Give the backbone structure.
Amino acid sequence: MLKILTVFGTRPEAIKMAPLIRELQGQRERITCRVAVTAQHREMLDQVLELFHIEPAYDLDIMAPGQSLFDITRRALTGLEQVLAAEEPDLVLVHGDTTTTFVAALAAFYRQIPVGHVEAGLRTGNKYSPFPEEMNRHLTGVVADLHFAPTATARANLLREGVAPEKIFVTGNTVIDALLATVDPGYRFHDPILESINYRERRVLLVTTHRRENLGEPMRDIYLALRDIVTAYDDVEIVFPVHRNPRVRQVVREVLGELPRVHLIEPLSYLPFVHLMDRCYLVLTDSGGMQEEAPALGKPVLVLRDTTERPEAVEAGTVRLVGTGRQAVRDETARLLDDPAHYRQMAEAVNPYGDGRAARRICRAILYHFGLAAEPPEPFQPSGFCIKGSAL
């Protein structure tokens, strides 16, 4: 019996690991899968655990007010030392780029336990952008024994860094698996603001910002551009789930507070957020994960960053990297609002990130690596796959 421990600590990790946990737990004759969470983020993590019916065997509950990267690293490493000693798994699975991801990989290395890295190989080439995620990915990749790259581009990054080809599996991204299991055309919002919007007659811009490197003037410029847009277009509404960081909230209120057709709301749990993304007209974000999710729903994405570790969507044409300058953000948004052909070109471009079978491929790759499957999975190939929700 192959014993696997999955470790994560934030909402995005939980969303992307949920389909894989379900797949691994379905292999009961060959695999025992246990879950440990650091709860680097608490409330938003708990919402996803409940939604996907994940019951952690270990919950370190490390989140504390005003926590720093030093705090997260120290508490997670100490807690995971005890978890690994108790479990002694054959493989530790981590996801993506969080501090929990790197620390869990390091803890497994200290106990000489193999590490599998889900969503491996994403790179910007700038160790401070995004910070600290870029270096978390690099450092986890150095420790990892199995690399589950979502795309061929991610695989090429790993090969350039000297990873052995037989240790890399191109799987697609599990976030598409999660979307496929979640989007419901008949979904109704519980929030009265979201339920009251006429998504067919109003063009709704979904906005999120939270990156450390965008704090301060870059965010102010973004919000000024949004103010310009909502002032210029009578049929545009902005829905902005505002990050809880006080530095974000202060500037948002100063620039966008009290404007008509701008809805500054609390952060949403995964279920309503996915359906808001499905029903909006376009997305403006500095998030990484939304660059993968929105294209699968046929939504153009303007990325409010100067770099991206997800260049596949830029190359495919579903995503445009616009930076944080007021004029650039305003002009690119206006182009999508004014030019239907340009909008269709982005909305209908090939989704490069997945087909809903990533978790199955990863599970098969693990079984193959440990001699429990005769053949490796077929690599993921991009196609015209698109989730049919209530897209306009």
